[in-house]
Design a protein that fits this description.
The protein is an alpha+beta fold. The protein has four helices and six strands; from the N terminus they run βββααββααβ. It has helices at residues 35-39, 47-69, 109-122, 124-128, and strands spanning 6-11, 18-23, 31-33, 73-88, 91-106, 132-139. α2 packs across α3. The protein is elongated, with a radius of gyration of 17 Å.
């Protein structure tokens, strides 16, 4: 089993508190986050955009692997994942993830789009998210 770690530090209450988020690799090191970065448009990161980045990266890698397995070459993929944070009762819940991907590939467009659907379902982060995952895919 491969294990990776992310970590967070938090000081203070919800609205006046401040946090720092880091990754094991050091790609993120003490990046600020807080109420303003999550619920307003303040500078810094938030859990939902980090999940979105992880989802987009995971999907892109899964799609590249699956296209390669189908013998499709010349692959270039650009993906974003919009994570929806919705009010639920007294709190919040992530309810949706929407992938938007543009795929360049030397292959039949319908086949590429079929493989993209399989990658949407099969990527490990898609499997982790207990959310409705939708997708818009186009081939350039």
């Amino acid at each position: 089993m491969i294990t990776r770690k992310g970590s967070a530090k938090w000081d203070g209450g919800l609205k006046d508190g401040k946090g720092l988020v880091s990754t094991q690799s050091g790609a993120l090191s003490d990046q600020p986050y807080g109420f303003g970065t999550r619920f307003e448009d303040k500078p810094g990161t938030n859990p939902e955009e980090l999940i979105g980045a992880a989802h987009a990266a995971c999907f892109s890698m899964a799609l590249a692997m699956m296209l390669e397995q189908e013998g499709i070459s010349g692959v270039s993929i650009e993906t974003s994942s919009k994570i929806g944070l919705d009010k639920e009762g007294e709190g919040f819940a992530v309810k949706t993830a929407h992938l938007v991907t543009t795929i360049g590939a030397d292959g039949d467009e319908s086949k590429v789009l079929e493989v993209a659907q399989k990658a949407k379902e099969g990527c490990p982060i898609s499997k982790l998210l207990n959310a409705e995952i939708t997708m818009e895919a186009s081939v350039r």
